[in-house]
Amino acid sequence: MNGKIVGIGLLAVAAIAGGGMWYLQEYHFYDRLPPADTMIVQTAAGPATLPVTDFQGIDADSSPLRWRACAVLAQQPADPVLFNGATPLGAPGWFDCFDHGQLTDDLASGAAQAVLSQAEIRPDVDRVLAIYPDGRVYGWHQYNDKTPERGVMD
Q1: How far apart are the C-alpha atoms of 34 and 12, rounded to whole Å?
Q2: If you average pLDDT over residues 9-21, what whole number do you get?
Q3: pTM score, two decimals?
Q4: 20, 47, 113, 138: most buried by Cβ count inside 10 Å?
């Protein structure tokens, strides 16, 4: 009988800890960003500040990689700096404008183009945007390992 009580107690503690960890990762650390009306895109001529509409964004202080954004560009950037090796990261399920699986597929097929928004937004972290021809833009932070096969294309 004592073994069952201990086993049930361990399962209960594991379930509570797992539920707490899930809640922290999905909800607790994220904050919605205030509406923005511009986004920065690096171009051959230097940084361009482009107007956007329908901005939605999230961020967290717990990690430099938690920033995500969705918006619509009012105009396409002229000669943007392409970003090689772009890997969209997942977002919490409740932030439904950002679908990292679809972004990954669209970047691989050429339906969207990965460009550099801001290099070294934090140490060793770049802000990357996926831009669609219709003006939709999705952003995330990504580690840069500063090797020739990753990061900003020459």
Answers
A1: 39
A2: 77
A3: 0.79
A4: 138
